[in-house]
Amino acid sequence: MAVTESDFLDLEQRLGVSRRAFLKFCAGVAASMGLGGNAGLAMAEAVVTAKKRPPVIWLHGQECTGPSETLLRSEQPSLETLILDLISLEYHQTLDAGAGHGVEARKRQSMEENKGKYVLVIEGSIPLADGGIYCKIGGQTMLEATKEAAEHAAAIIAFGSCASWGGVPSSGINPTGAVGAPAVITDKPVVTIPGCPPNPANFLGTVLYFVTYGKLPPLDAQGRPKWAYGRLIHENCYRRPHFDAGRFATQFGDEGHKQGWCLYKLGCKGPETYNNCPSLEFNNVGGGVWPVGVGHPCFGCSEGGVGFTKPLFSLADVKTHTAPNTFPAIDSRENTNAASALSAGLAGVGIGVAIGAGAMAAKKLGQQEHLSDDQG
Asked: What's the CA angle centered on 319, arms 316 and 325, to 5 degrees?
């Protein structure tokens, strides 16, 4: 069905945003997903012409409600209004106006009426110890509620680090046996959108993709949307040139920190964390509103085994290449010009090439000796 001008006028009245702003938003989401130029329009048309909003069952486990809070406080524009219009929020333990048995009955009624059609969103980890008794809602454990709701869900989204891989509750000795949704739901795909808090744009983009195409976006091995978690924070970080040039802050408030140098030596986990924080930032206000942007190291909140696990200021496991420790210390370069910094960089490259050549020569020599032994 072709979209008419009146359709968009109706959208403006429902959402309180202009047609231009809405189209611009959809185009931005499509571009961040790496989709073609027509994808943004397709997403807009899917929202405008939708005969029925997909029903959503939203469960809360062990968590701080951070994902819901970040969703409600974001503007992309007026994201909370858009999200509540894009979906039919049937059950949400924080936002429900009602309470008690009536709300629980309504949840089950919606799940029965919308079998195979509703989207299940899980926020928070799921405790497994002692039968899951450490998190109960309406007389039902989170473990039971998750399995019940997942059985007939059309799509399942784990929103936040706790729901994706266990997050804070799973750290340390983990007395409640907290795990993420993928460890409980093993018979169907679970989209994980980790972060503490997660970026609401990553959630909205995933939902828009599902509404538009009727399927989930391409996912990585951990169930994360590739369009949002396909690259290391380190690769897109605007402090990366300082890393490559060997310019590091070594203490909070030192000269390197004041000048915006790389935070690797302060424990930044960007080199081992996959997320799009540098490009999206938070709260749609610009100005570098995300940890590294305000001068604090990334602590790897979206990466299982890194966030809430590794010591905050320990060095990251660099996935690309190690930091250039062959460069002079910061103090000896503070008053040098660009030419001397370049010379130091070239020297570091030369040392690296020499080391690499030596290693390759040793490898070839070992192969030749092994070959000679076999022939002998």
From this structure: 65
Nearest one of 48, 118, 41 to 82, comparing CA atoms: 48
Q: Is 237 annotated as contributing to ligand binding?
A: yes
What residue segments make up the domains of the chain, in order of their start? 52-228, 231-334, 336-376
- What is the pTM assigned to this prediction? 0.77
Q: Average pLDDT for consecutive 10-residue bins of the chain (376 residues)?
A: 60 66 74 71 71 85 91 64 71 83 91 94 97 93 96 96 96 95 95 94 85 86 92 92 92 95 95 92 78 94 93 89 54 43 36 36 42 46
- For the chain, count helices (H), then strands (E): 15, 9
**Percentage helix, strand, coil, to 5, in the chain?**
45, 10, 45
* Ligand-binding site membership of 135 (annotated): no
Known binder of ligand: residue 296? no
The continuous run of DSSP H or E covering 123 comes out as: strand 119-123
Asked whether residue 26 is marked as a ligand-binding residue, the answer is: no
The answer to whether the annotation marks 196 as part of a ligand binding site is yes
Please check whether the domain covering 52-228 is classified as CATH 3.60.15.10: no
Q: What is the three-class DSSP state of 102?
A: helix
Distances in Å between the Cα of 355 and the Cα atoms of 211, 317, 326, 349, 358 are 53, 21, 12, 10, 5
Choose among 268, 274, 234: nearest CA to 249: 268
- Report d(CA 285, CA 181) in Å as an integer: 32
3-state secondary structure 26-87: HHHHHHHCCCCCCHHHHHHHHHHCCCCCCEEEEEECECCCHHHHHHHCCCCCCHHHHHHHHC
Q: What DSSP element (H or E) covers 308?
A: none
* Fold for the domain defined by 231-334: Cytochrome-c3 Hydrogenase; Chain A, domain 2 (4.10.480)
CB of 117 within 8 A of CB of 154?
yes
